[in-house]
Design a protein that fits this description.
Layout: H1 3-9, H2 17-25, E1 28-32, E2 37-39, E3 47-53, E4 56-61, E5 67-73, E6 78-79, H3 82-87, E7 94-97, E8 101-107, H4 108-117, H5 119-145, H6 148-158, H7 160-165, H8 168-175, H9 179-194
Length: 197
């Protein structure tokens, strides 16, 4: 594995070339099969993953007992349950592979070593966490201010691979709508596209 993959994910100006060698050595290649559960609700997360190939989702069980997708993860994303990993508390979510996947795993203890010994990595971590907070807030606001069609179009722009490869039922719960509503939205968008000059 070339260090360019790690450099693209841990992209921060003050991380030195030799630091990337140390960072890369702290990760282990792991493969998951389609539908495999990576983290079960109620378990404490002890690692996170850099996604090289494949798609994942996180989900919760709603009060009616149905699965609700809370997020999607695709190549070059960091697959993580932040609260469980850093607060050392049982996860409220489960994480599932949606395809066969190749990832690079780092244990929490190894992450802590990197965080305390590589200055640039510490700065990257703070920057990444700020970005995650911004994205979470953005999604929370959009759930109340955007129509389902607008949310679908945003997902289509940001993560086209999800739209192409993930079952509709998972996308629908992520958008907060029914399968039927999602099918109607997709047909409307398709017809609008076909009618363009």
């Amino acid at each position: 594995m070339s260090d360019s993959f790690f450099e693209s994910i841990y992209n921060y100006p003050s991380i030195k070339k030799e630091d990337y060698e140390v960072i890369m050595a702290a990760h282990t290649k792991v493969e998951f099969s389609k539908n495999e559960i990576i983290l079960n609700e109620g378990k404490i997360s002890n690692e996170y993953f850099l996604i090289k190939k494949g798609l994942f989702r996180s989900f919760v069980i709603g009060y009616k007992g149905n699965e609700i997708t809370t997020d999607f993860f695709s190549p070059n994303d960091i697959l993580i349950e932040v609260a469980s990993l850093f607060l050392r508390t049982p996860s409220n979510e489960s994480i599932q592979a949606l395809t066969d996947c190749e990832v690079y795993k780092i244990n929490f203890s190894d992450f802590q070593k990197l965080y305390s010994t590589i200055e640039g990595f510490t700065e990257w971590g703070r920057s990444w966490m700020s970005q995650q907070l911004f994205m979470a807030k953005h999604r929370a606001v959009n759930m109340h201010t955007q129509s389902a069609s607008e949310r679908y179009l945003e997902l289509m722009t940001q993560k086209p691979q999800i739209i192409k490869e993930v079952p509709l039922k998972y996308i629908a719960t992520y958008l907060g709508i029914t399968d039927t509503s999602l099918s109607r939205i997709r047909k409307e968008i398709l017809s609008q596209t076909e009618n363009l000059p």
